[in-house]
Design brief:
CATH class: Alpha Beta
Distance between the termini: 26 Å
Largest sheet: 8 strands, mixed
Order of helices and strands: HHHEEEHEHEHEHHHHHHEHEHH
Strand order of the largest sheet: 1-2-4-3-5-6-7-8
Oligomer: single chain
Number of strands: 8
CATH topology: Rossmann fold
Length: 341
Amino acid sequence: MSPASENEPGNSSAALAADVDVLDAAAAEALLAASLATNVDEPEPDLPPITTVEVDGVTVHHRDSGHNVSGPTYVLVHGLGGSLANWEPVWPYLARLGRVLTPDLAGFGRTEADAGRSAVGDNVDLLSAYLDVVDARNVVLVGNSMGGMISLLLAAKGHPQLERLVLVDAVVPFGPKVRPNPRVGLTFALYMCPPLARFVVPRYVQRRGTDQMGLDGVLVVVADRRRVPRWVWRRAVEEARALTEIQSAVPSLVRAAQSIVIAGASRSYRRALAEVTVPVTFLQGDADALVPARGVRAALARVPEWNYVEAEGVGHVPMFEAATWTAAVIAGRIRGNITNM
């Protein structure tokens, strides 16, 4: 069956029909173009409330669409400085296909970190236990940025309910070709000196203001701000305000950022790529300033069996710029290959 003839790529509902047929190259390209062109008009979704669940002594805030026995469970994991709100643009599309879960990691969003347990390794353990507590079955684990690193490490360890892994602009093992832009490098250099970071970051936030910090959090992860729906900007401000209620916010951010650098440079993280046994899709925006596509392609050359999909003109958080396209990749409708890039 030719997906292009069955479904109009520019129609969000048709493009994400429950049969999740794989789109051919022309239809996939048309879907990306349509998604980029219309993303600013994406309506704000009707979402279930944020609730809590106790996981190994941590009160995890999350959203849960409820069990859907006919489809997979999509567990969507945000990145550094993000929250469950990062995934709201793709929620309505994935909720048609299965159960959707979006947790706030420890130290982020509304989830308070316990005794400084916000590092990558801490959140790998928390996420694994979370899957058990919420009875997640037939899991498609989806991670963006730091959330991708956490998801990859969990997949390498293994989980009985994990069926597929989707990495969205995930942090890859560092190397000569895997370098962020200078501004990002300087920021992480600051994080590697925790006492200085704990002094500088609160003062920077105070000078910028909470609301502007929320807006800045969107600006730094997109390639074109004109694609971002108005409600996403509003939600970013709301999440920034909520974060001010978390006493451990700054130490948690610093600890997590420091752990990303340590893990990314480790041999164990490089080995983790080869230790993942479930099918993997890696979605990368070619205009990502935080995790450059060139470095990702170099890092993934050692795993040519992975499905690599690169989106032209898209930044670090594709959900904000091309929600329909991103959901289609997560659902398994878009295919590519690292050897073709």
